[in-house]
Design a protein that fits this description.
The protein is of the alpha+beta class. The chain is about 30% helix and about 50% strand. The strands form two sheets. It has a five-stranded antiparallel sheet, covered by helices on one side. A two-stranded antiparallel ribbon has the order 5-6.
Length: about 100
């Protein structure tokens, strides 16, 4: 799971949270952070503390170690995530379209 400038793969969603802090998420191929192709469903659990990354004493980021275990594809979560993301994108597009008509 890796992406650069919003292109690559990423986990979306937090479903079926458990007492141990684990949750279910779907890994997606993304393009500009928009999900295109679901790759699999995973049970995700944090296994350590966040580690700060510095360069020449300047903070540049943080990372947290997670454990991922592949489970059966949850198609309902795939559909929900897909329509949630694209529904928001479509509403934003429509809103900007109408807003641009008001401005001009």
């Amino acid at each position: 799971m890796e992406h650069r400038n919003g292109i690559g793969s990423i986990l979306y969603g937090k479903k079926n949270k458990q007492d141990d802090g684990s949750y279910q998420a779907v890994e997606w191929v993304i393009f500009f952070f928009l999900p295109l192709i679901p790759l699999g469903t995973y049970r995700v659990r944090r296994i350590g503390d966040s580690e700060l990354t510095t360069t020449n004493g300047i903070f540049v980021g943080a990372s947290t170690p997670y454990e991922r275990v592949k489970i059966k594809m949850d198609w309902m979560q795939v559909i929900t995530t897909f329509f949630s993301i694209y529904g928001i994108a479509i509403l934003l597009f429509i809103g900007l379209y109408f807003l641009s008509g008001v401005i001009y």
